[in-house]
Amino acid sequence: xxxxxxxxxxxxxxxxxxxxxxxxxxxxxxxxxxxxxxxxxxxxxxxxxxxxxxxxxxxxxxxxxxxxxxxxxxxxxxxxxxxxxxxxxxxxxxxxxxxxxxxxxxxxxxxxxxxxxxxxxxxxxxxxxxxxxxxxxxxxxxxxxxxxxxxxxxxxxxxxxxxxxxxxxxxxxxxxxxxxxxxxxxxxxxxxxxxxxxxxxxxxxxxxxxxxxxxxxxxxxxxxxxxxxxxxxx
Length: 234
Description:
Shape: globular
Largest sheet: 7 strands, antiparallel
Distance between the termini: 48 Å
Strand content: 25-35%
Mean pLDDT: 82
Strand order of the largest sheet: 1-7-6-5-4-3-2
Radius of gyration: 17 Å
Structural class: alpha+beta
Low-confidence stretches: 1-24, 30-57
Order of helices and strands: HEHHEEEEEEHH
Number of helices: 5
Helix content: 25-40%
């Protein structure tokens, strides 16, 4: 997918705030024991069949009126409850350049435009894909474009994922964040389309589910660790 790269650069005030936030996050993660933990990839829990609406989630999810691909044959959705402030959870998820710090499966990450994540932002990242009965083990190169974003509420992006011997023509990924008693409920949905992955829908759905469950687990672990650190008396 193509997109014109914004020509404007963030002003010094925004850059300083971003740098301060990144530094604070790094310190908090280090103190909480998240930075520097073992590098092996997260072992995802077995994907659960969630073709119906995820537990505790009512109705189809959208971000500014847009959801995942309603015609896709490969889809998965799940929820997690995180005991942390909404601002912490949303910041972790949308500061995509920091994903490799707390998500072992994210091998590399590159923003393709400056400034805070927003509609039209693009980023390129890589993640391993295990071998299946029909595809080899490979590393997927994913170029994602943000289509909708609402602060502390939701974000939706899409893009192709291409690796040696494996191609996903388009993945559409939606996240919603809802403040609830005791923390935040995070809901995620993703769909895949493409001839290759649609040749084996059950296997592709299982792989998608394992990836999303691992992502939710990493987000929960990291956000709650940061929250515990922030609440400690100085």
